[in-house]
User: Fold these one by one.
Assistant:
Number 1:
Amino acid sequence: MELLSELLGDSPVMTALRETVRRLLQPGRTRLPPILIQGETGTGKGLLARGLQAGSARADRPFVEINCAALPATLLEAEMFGFERGAFTDARQAKRGLFQTAHTGTIFLDEIGLLPADLQAKFLKVVEDRRVRRLGATRDEAVDVWIIAASNENLQAAVREGKFRQDLYHRLSVVSLEMPPLRERGDDVVMLAERFLALASADYGRPPARLDEAARARLLAYQWPGNVRELGNIIERVALLSEAPIITANLLDLEPGPAPSAAPLAALSAVDVVRNHLMSALEHTGWNISAPPASCASPAIPCWRGWRSAVSTPIPACPSVVTSSDGSPLARRAGRCPPPQKRRGSGATRHSSLLDSREAAVRRIRTRWS
Ligand SMILES: Nc1ncnc2c1ncn2[C@@H]1O[C@H](COP(=O)(O)OP(=O)(O)OP(=O)(O)O)[C@@H](O)[C@H]1O
Ligand SMILES: [Mg+2]
């Protein structure tokens, strides 16, 4: 398979990025340095991380993804490093962490800029020593993992502000890759729009369509604060709502909004991160809102709470056991959930009948997480 084949774009910045990756992933090279991917939201950092793994000698090894913003510090630590039986109340059996699960493969730490301070120190030790210690354990375990981290925030600025450890930043950014914003990718925006239009037309069984000159010019002039994700959503909406064989600038309905701030990377708040995570998780489930996306499945995850408000109906009682990403019990929650509420009928049916359109879900998510 061609290297980074999913990551579309022929602009000079994307060609340079591909060349860097090609040099990095020499065939047979299994020992790889930590990689830091930075870029605005929706620029394709997650896609690049998966492409790096797929193009590396670790392609058939585990790829484990952790969103550092998605769990409170204590759960994140247990999730990352695992725990021994009895390490905390209700730790009835030992469990390995995601680092151990990723052994021989790759671990992708998304939103690394939001890793809590005490975990930054523990994580630095893992990066340096390649050893992890489960909660409650007295011995370390060796792990062979390729570490890829990503951040929407400008980590150098976070270091200057004392929010992110300088030593960890240097350790993680042995190779630093920058995903360029869409507005700096020239004709890529038109090429991506045409590709998304062809895909959406095929998906929704509508006749093929093309962009007229004015539509192309509008795409090129727009600032794309949400980058490729925003472009994909706009083209999908146009494909869904119009049967026209020629897509005009008016159909795109793009406001020539204000230019984004001069800072190359916008610092996102935790709320921004949850909203983006929720939107991206729903994107992956095809906007099926009848059940929380797998990555939001735990009530401990802020994203889950966003999903709950998005569907605006009492969700079944918080389960007393918080499950980890592989579905196994992680820890029993103490007194943080409201008492169970009695519900009539199937929750899924009620949720879907209350909110059966993606537009409504998006509106609610934006309102709740704004
Ligand atoms: N170059 C690209 N070619 C094709 N699709 C792309 C490209 N870049 C991004 N996408 C698509 O855009 C969406 C957002 O990409 P992705 O989730 O990787 O962005 P991100 O930078 O990780 O965003 P966030 O910071 O919000 O997590 C996905 O649907 C992805 O498939
Ligand atoms: Mg991402």
Number 2:
Amino acid sequence: MKNWYSSYHQVLAFLSIFFFILHLTQLQHFQAAGAAEYVRPPPRRIISTTHNRPKSHPQQVHISLVGSDHMRISWITNDKSVPSMVEYGKVPGKYNASATGEHTSYRYFFYSSGKIHHVKIGPLDPNTIYYYRCGGVGDEFTFKTTPSKFPIQFALAGDLGQTEWTASTLAHVNKTDYDVLLLPGDLSYADSQQPLWDTFGRFVEKYASRRPWMVTQGNHEVEAFPILKINAFKAYNSRWIMPYQESGSHSNLYYSFDVAGVHIVMLGSYTDFDGDSAQYKWLQADLAKVNRKKTPWLVTIIHVPWYNTNIAHQGEGESMRKAMEDLLYKAKLDIVFAGHVHAYERFTRVYDNEANPCGPMHLTVGDGGNREGLALMFKKPTSPLSLFQEASFGHGRLRVLNRTHAHWTWHRNDDEHNSSISDEVWLKNLSVSEACKEAAEEDQEPSNAVNDEL
Ligand SMILES: [Fe+2]
């Protein structure tokens, strides 16, 4: 008995020492990952945004781009008799135009959604403020259309969730004007608890009703019931319809759109992507249609990063990279944005695991502020392909100034009031690069494997 008791304590002591050393090791990685003086924040609580309007009034209002001069207005009412109709105009309270659209609803086991309205309005003037009302009742909302030419500004934040950190990120995004928010997957973190999609819709309405939010899906959107594999993407596809039909896609899980000289391709990490898949064939056709004289910039957004030196989610994007990287490299893709890893990371221009000045720059921005917290550890030694890593919440900003130059900044959330630029880089457009034109045409190995642009 005594021997057993002694062994038990020896095991306990061993485990204590083991976990203490592990903790120290993690701290070392943690500190090496970014600015040494910065103390990274812990996760914060979920904010539950309640419904406090009449049943017929719109809730969860958000907007998205459709074609060059239309906007889709999406909202939900608990009252099923409210018409799917939007009135709009350029003067507050005076609506000289209106449009009717479609509606849907869905069931997810014991949950029944409200009436989900989607109304396409337009044609709209570029860079113009509009005022609108949904369903003929309730508050007036307002949005600004995107510019028709450069410059244009994108805000980027993935893996958003609905926590106090998310609120901080969105408040920082909103402090400086921008034209479009791009979200590389993982929106609500509802994870099959459907009322959390409603709280998320209400949580983001303040921002998503004012600027178009263009999103793609992440693993938290799948929501397929285990074993039976039913209900996959049911909430996401009902609530967050993107302009897939307008871009010749048969699935809301992948699509493309043009905005002010930028062609943006939203790819689906959680649907088939192999060479014989519908997504791959659609991507081939979509890239063949891109006119770089009209849209000099080519940007792709995925959820799972193809390049990642964080310990979290290692290798998860590899099969998609192998399937699609070549196609996008030949199209002279400028940038790949990804989420999934809850940290920020910037790579050099890269192709097939080697630095390549004619490949795209890869950036991971899975740092919106969700309930799961940060991915703290990066692999050591640092890969020469990875130029910046930081495990903090924040958002990115891409300012496309003209057909040749863009400026990227990454903004760390210091606290709920302040953010600071932690990383920045200038990018040159690949479609105007003579060296890359020759490299692509002659299928040569590019000579100078260097990154930073200016
Ligand atoms: Fe994810």
Number 3:
Amino acid sequence: MKRIGLVGVGSMGCNHARVLRELGGVGDLIICDTNSKLVNGISQKYRIASCYKSVFEMMRKEKLDGVVLSTPTDTHYEIAKSILEYEVPLLIEKPISQNCNQAEELVSRFRDKKIPLMIGYVERFNPVIHQLKQVIVDIGIDKVLHINLLRIGPFPVRSSLHTDGVVLDLSTHDLDIIHFLFGLKIARVFMTTRMGEKADIYARALLEIGNDITASCEWSWISPQRKRFVEVFTSKGCLVADLSRQDLFFYNHAPTDLDGDQDHFKLLQFGKFQNEFTKFSVTKKEPLKEELIYFLKMIDNEAGDNSNQPVALMRILEKLYESSHSRGYVDTNECYAEY
Ligand SMILES: NC(=O)c1ccc[n+]([C@@H]2O[C@H](COP(=O)([O-])OP(=O)(O)OC[C@H]3O[C@@H](n4cnc5c(N)ncnc54)[C@H](O)[C@@H]3O)[C@@H](O)[C@H]2O)c1
């Protein structure tokens, strides 16, 4: 049974506390948050072994097998460095840090000391993303034309002050999904943003993936409805994945009039398609639970780095901002160097 520390028990940390408490492999759960009201609430709700207000005190006093870090992103770098001093495996909520330099330093330091470091890209553990990947393989990646990623909703409810904008908050999930689905590099990016008082609150991005696939992304905190969708347009039909409901549909381009012309685009243009669709059966699982199970395996050296390229993701994120300032496309091939 493992002794796990959880730093930050706000909106996301609460979910970690609930799921960690459900996991058979976790014995003592120790929590830490600067907000004592939250700490009291969580410790009454879940079986918590001890509570701390300071991460330094927690690390000094407790012998831990792993730590989950779920504080605001601008605190990740300093807290992660102090946890590393105790050589304890760490799961950091996404994104790893506020900028590339911090991400590079953290990844190198953990790698040098051979301490497991995982970043909470929870969509990698969403069963609908796994099913989508399998169907893309079955159809053939060479048939993929375009991918549309939608991650929109109202402003996040947070219990403390964050300095992030919507792009830092949401984009790396989708960049990670693209890497996971296709195993290809993102080659060029373009982004336009809408600023709020302090940070970006809405963004649209266009990406070029590998040699041939294009992508469009929408990241929003100003949309009334929460939606998480991935649509993959292929020359054989369109796949629509609803990440929240864990539903996957395939809208088949079935020709209604086989007059010898097999050009799918021409057939689409002249309305010679039936819109048949198939709903795949997806076995629903809680992605956060799968992610934490993976982390426990990493602690035991039973699961390796799941290659979510945290540094490349942060570099691409900076290129997205560069593009929104320069108002032009920016090359991202160099983002993959070294990592
Ligand atoms: N994976 C996902 O889908 C997902 C979803 C939401 C948030 N997140 C990430 O989770 C992290 C936390 O976001 P949130 O929405 O839960 O924020 P939040 O503000 O609700 O919670 C953060 C908590 O950290 C505490 N805290 C701040 N500084 C601290 C310190 N030095 N030591 C101990 N506790 C400290 C705060 O008191 C607060 O309770 C962010 O990095 C965010 O990007 C990930």
Number 4:
Amino acid sequence: MNVVISVDMEGVCGVASWVQVSPPEFGGLVNAGEYERARIQMTREANAAALGAFEAGAEGVLIADSHETMRNLLPDYLDERVRFISGNDRPLSMVQGVQESGVAALLMVGYHARAGTQGAPLAHTWNGNVRDVRINGVQAGEPYLNALLAGHYGVPTVFVSGDDIAVRQVQDDLGADVVGVAVKEGLSMFSAVHLHPAEACRQIQAGARAAVQQAATARPFTVIFPASVQLSFDHQARADQAGRVPGVTRVDAVTVGYSSPDAYHLFQTFRMLCQVAQVRLDS
Ligand SMILES: [Zn+2]
């Protein structure tokens, strides 16, 4: 049995600010020291999940670095049995690897709540331009979209760690049998009460072990297809662009809609529209 671990950064223990998760190459509001510290904890949490998976009998563990540039993990700190994926612009983005044969489960580490969630640290969906995503009328964040894409390949999502609100959203959306580990309690968009980083890793390792032990009975996540998708942006100029893509309709000033026959089409269309909508607002 093989597993894929998708690792984001906003939901990692100790993180509560964009400053901590912004690689210095972006410029602007960055602090290299804080970023370097946060990527170490991100790596430790990914490794904790890998150790739990191995303890549960996984033979292959593939870790997908899935934040920003997707070059955050420090592989020297990872267990030597893992393989890892780094670098952006991947065919399946944050869940690259689930398409490989023999993958029995997806684990999500360091995940965060969807855009617009009150009290959830660094809540967002994909990039800062997306205000809301609805699939068949249900609000979807990154875990939902990624679980759906993994489900397209028959891979169930069995574990999530992050802030308490992100964990609750995943369990509400995917089912209570997804094992969740909250490494912090959200107080606001930019504050949280955290576990000790070492305790967070212990809980992630134990949770991942339990989740992978149950993977054989977990079901891949799916929705009713064809699915109706509505994507709302933070500015009408973005919807102007996205709404001109063939097959996409304009719903209201900031919202576009489309229909998808399967999760692969849904996910890739979502990505493309987010890309198209990245227009300059100061021109
Ligand atoms: Zn991220």
